[in-house]
Description:
- The chain is an alpha+beta fold.
- It has a six-stranded antiparallel beta sheet. A six-stranded antiparallel beta sheet has the order 4-5-6-7-11-12, with helices on one face. Strands 15-14-13-16-17 form a five-stranded parallel beta sheet, with helices on both faces.
- The model has no long low-confidence stretch (mean pLDDT 92).
Amino acid sequence: MCGIAGALWWNPSRAISAKTLQRMTDSIRHRGPDADGHYFWPTPDSNAGRDFLARNSATPQVTGVALGHRRLSIIDVAGSPQPQGNEDNTVQIVFNGEIYNYLELRTELLNAGHQFRTEGDTEVIVHLYEQYGLDFVQHLRGMFALVIWDAGRQRLVLARDRAGKKPFYYRIEDGRLAFASELKALLQIPNIPRTLNRQAVLQFLTLQYVPHPHCILEGFSKLPPATLGVLENGQLNLHTYWSPPYDQPDFSRSTVDDWREELDATLSEAVRLRLRSDVPLGAFLSGGIDSTVICGLMQTQLDRPVQTFSIGFPVAAFDERAFARQASQHLGTEHHEAVVTPDALSILPQLIWHYDEPFGDSSAIPTMYLSRMTREHVTVALTGDAGDELFCGYERYRAVKLTGMTDFVPKWARRLASSVISRLPSSVEHRSFRRRLKRLLESLAQDPERRYLNWITIFNSTRLEWLVTPELWALALNEDPANCIFDAYRKFPDRDFVTRTTATDLQTYLPCDILTKVDIASMAASLECRCPLLDHKVIELSARMPIEVKQTMKQSKKVLMETFRRLIPADIQTRKKMGFGVPIDHWFRAELKPLLHDILLSRRCLDRGLLNEQSVRQLIEEHTSSRVDHAYRLWNLLCLELWQRMYLDVPPPIAAPTVLS
C-alpha cells in the first residue's frame, strides 16, 4: 500500500521541480513510511521519447514528467521499489494498491517471454501494459490507483480500481496534469489555486461527502471508480472500463440453494487471494455478520489463529465488543480489543487534515482508533465492508421494500396521510423506533427515488434552502446537489427498486463515504485494509442475484447468512445491526457545546456567505436544549468550517496538526 504523486507538462513554465515533488510525497508519508522514490523524464537515455517528438512536432509536446511514490512494504518487502520500469525503462509506473492475482499473471507473462527483476505485483502491471496495451486493466484483480508513463508513445495512463477502493485526485490546467493519492499533495505545488467550489459545498451538506468526479476545490477532480484515463497530445480522455452487471440478472436461479455453492467458492477464493502477504496480517472483527464471515473464511484457510481486532466505547449503544468476543471464540481467532474514550478535541484536527475535503461521517473517528490499535500488531487487515450494499443489509432497504408496497395508493391519499403524520411529535433519540417510523410514514407521498434520498441526506432540499444563504441556494436551482444519486438510479431501470437502490449505494455511498473513510483512516496509521467482498467477481455475482435470495421482509442478507451459517454464532445471526459510531449527540450537549458556539457562530464562519445565521443558531439551540437531535447536521457544519480554516484560510500544513486553529 502506498501513496503516489506527480505531473506531466507540455508547458515548460508548468514544470514540477525535484523540491516540489519531494514536498508532495512528504505530505503523504503516512501512506508509505518505508521508502520514497522519484523519477523524472526526460532522462539521458530517453531517446524513444525524443525520436517521437521529432516525428510529431505538430502535436503538443511533452516536455517533462515527474513521478513520485511513498511505499508501505507488503509484497516483496526487500525489492520492488517505485517508480518502476520495464526492461528498457521506456515504461514507468507509480502504483498504490495490491494486485491479488499477480502470481497467476506473472506466470502467464513469463510464458509470453517477459523478463522480471522483482518478485512483487508492481512489475506485473508494467508487463501487462506491454502485453495488452490499454486492456491491461481488465486482467487486474485487486485495488489500485496508478499512473503509467509510456515514453515511446508519449502517453500517460491513469486508472482506478473497479470499486473505488483507492483514491485518485488530479488537476488539469494550461499545460500540465498533476495527480496524487491525496489532495494535500497537489496543494504542495507552488501557486496552485485554492478556490472553494460552492456547488460542492451544497453536495457535501446534502450527502456528507463530495461525490466523484467533483472536488471541494475548483479545478480539481477525483477519478471515478472503474475509470481509465489516457493523456495524449494534450488531451485527457476518460472512459469506464467496467460496470456491475445489474442489467444481466439471472432470474432462472430463484432460491438460495441455487446460489449457495457459487457464492461460497467465489468469496472463499477472494479471501484466499487476500491472504498473500510478506508481513503480519489480521482482520477487523466487529461481531457483525460480514466481518464474522470474512474472519471465518480466513481461519479455515490458515494453519494458525487469525489475529482479530475490535474496539469498544464506554457508551453501551456504541459498544460491540461482546459480539466480537463471541465471534472470536466461535472461530478460534487470537482476539485483541480495547476500550477507548474518544477525545474529540484532540482527534478533530487530525481528522480534518487527513480527509482533505469536508467529510461528515463521524464513524471515521472510531475507524481511526481501530486502525491505530490494529497497526500495533499487524500491517494488513481484512475487513467486511460492502456486505450491506451487496446483500441488502441496511435496515433502510427493508423500508424501501415496505414503502414500495404503498405506491399503488393514489398520491392524494398518501399526501394526506403524510401531512397528518408530520404533525405528530417525534423522539429526540436519533435511533429510536418512533423517530424512524415517523420519518418513514412522512415520506409516503414522495416518489421512490426522492423518498430514499431524503432518508439518506443530512440536509434535504427543504432544509438546505432554509440553511444556506440565497446566493448559495441559487446554485442548487441550476444543478441538484444530489444529481449523482438520480444518475445512479437511471443506470439500471429494469431491476426492482430495492436492487436499484443497492446498486445506487454501490456507485455512490460506498466509494464516496465508506471506502473513503476506511482508506484514509487506515492509511493515516500506515495500515493496509483489504476487502474480499469488494472483489469484482463477488460484486458481479451479487449483481446477478434476484432480490428474493437476498432479502425478505423478515430477513436481510439471506443468501449470505444461509451460505455461511456454519461460521456465524447463533446470537450474531439474530442480533440487530449496530452502527459503528461515536456519541456526537451527547458531545454537542456537553464537552463540545462551547466549540459549537465558538466555531459555527463566529464572524469568521458566518461572514463566508454560505450559511444563514439564524438557521445555524436554531440548530444549535434546538439540539443543546434536547428538543431535536441535530447531531449529524451540526457535525457536518463543524467539519465544513474547520476544513475551510485549515485548507482555505492558510496553506494546509505538510503534517497533521495536533490542535485546532
